[in-house]
Amino acid sequence: MKPEKVNSLVIAYLNDVWKKRGSPNTFNPQPGHGALPWVANVQDPNFQAGARAMKHVHNVEPDLIREGCSIPITLTFQDLTGKNVLLLPLGASDDMAHSQNEKNNKRNYVEGVKTLLAYILELEHA
C-alpha cells in the first residue's frame, strides 16, 4: 500500500474512534513519515554471502526478517542500482535506536567489524 493511503485510513479510523468516545478534548492525529515497502530477494548471492558471514562470526544461522522500515533510502538504492540491498543487523534489542539514549555495545561494534570483513570475503564466492 502507498503510505498516503495507509495514513488516510489510519487517521480516519482514529478520528472515528475518538468521535465515539464523546470526549470534550480535541484530537488531531498527524502522520509522521512514511515510505514505500522494501522487499529484497533473500536468495540473491549478496544475501547468501551475508548469511554465511553471520554464521561464520556468530556461529548461528541468521534469522531472515523484514526490517529496515526506518531506512527508506534502501528502496531508492535498490531501484537506482538494480541490485538487492542488504542490511546486516549489528546492534542489540536494547540499543534504543534513534532515541536520545541510542547506544552500541563495544562487543557489538567489534563483532560488527568482523561480520563486515567476513561478508567482504564471502562476496568472492557469490
TrEMBL record:
Keyword field: Hydrolase, Metal-binding, Protease
Molecular-function annotations in GO: metal ion binding; peptidase activity
Record SUPFAM superfamilies: Zn-dependent exopeptidases
Cell inner membrane listed as a keyword: no
Coiled coil stretches, renumbered: none
GO biological process: proteolysis
Matches recorded under InterPro entries: Cyt/Met_Dipeptidase
Protein's UniProt name: Peptidase M20 dimerisation domain-containing protein
Native species: Diploscapter pachys
Native organism taxonomy: Eukaryota, Metazoa, Ecdysozoa, Nematoda, Chromadorea
